[in-house]
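Entry: Gfo/Idh/MocA family oxidoreductase
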Amino acid sequence: MGQVHARALSRLLQHYPDAPLAPRLVAVADNAPDDRTKRAADAYGFEHLLTDWRELVTHDEIDLVCVTGPNFIHRDVAVAAAEAGKHLWVEKPAGRNAAETAEIVAAVEAAGVQAATGFNYRNVPAVDRAREIVASGRIGTVEHTVVRFLADYSADPDAALSWRFQNEYSGSGVLGDLVSHAADLVQHVVGPIAELVVDRATFIPQRRAALPGAMHYEKGAGDLGAVENEDYVNALFRLQDGSRGILESSRTAVGEQNTYGFEVHGTQGAVQWDFRRMNELRVSSVDPSAGQPYLNSFYTTEYAGPGDGELSVFQPGTNNPIGFDDLKVVEARRLVESIATGRPVGATIHDALTAAQVLDAMITSSDERKWVSL
């Protein structure tokens, strides 16, 4: 994610020549034992290489700090950076839990700095259109929503016991990694979650220890150790508008690669989005003039075009697709606008806190086997 942030900032003026600020990559901090930091500096043009993030957050030439390390350093880096008067771009989950995220919020508010959070799926042009369709009433009153974030990146039982599987370092499992996105997305498109009930499961309870610097998809080589957090989450929820929903997420779903998306069903239609076909939206609407209108409300595919979201700054025509990295350029644009104007634009640290509170409620519900209100 550090590389993704660097690419996004480097590309900002290519897509947004009228951006109010021009980023300059001043420094990168990494304590990796190999030459990863030097390779990053050479590839992205950073002017200074640092081994301690504390030097970075107090650096006189730095105005913005990107927090893209493992979850367990997010709170410490973000709070220190805010206290030093730096703006923030924090990857999700901002903290390992809602309490840590609230500490970041408090530091940001006390310092009066801007803080963006990496909820990049909000920035998809087709998702922008879906949100507008729901808000416009085109599909009528929302009855129920389904959101799924399924992946197979931890399906291999021989994958290493990396920091992601240990609560001291991650805070949670698939909750923080994928459900944080799903919880934000359903609330962004439809509305706030009011209450929920949750089941969690760990399907691979032990893994072999990771080699130093190994990622969670690499093979383990050491002794077996316990997986301390969940592989799978299934939730029923009720939104504040009275509609119902289902949320399902897994990191061990064999055959599922980035199967992220949602379905919103209303009294007059429905809308579906799938990340794997990011630039498409499936829409169904009741046509009162048709014979048996409810039986003939078939889905049609609508393609994102220049009038949807930020697509026009990347591609000139309808269904010229954009990709994952482009979503981060949109985040960068919204962040620099926030910094220039002093008014938050896009997903902020407050949105990260809202999502973190949902995750905490999910843990409570699962542990205590009951409905929990937010």
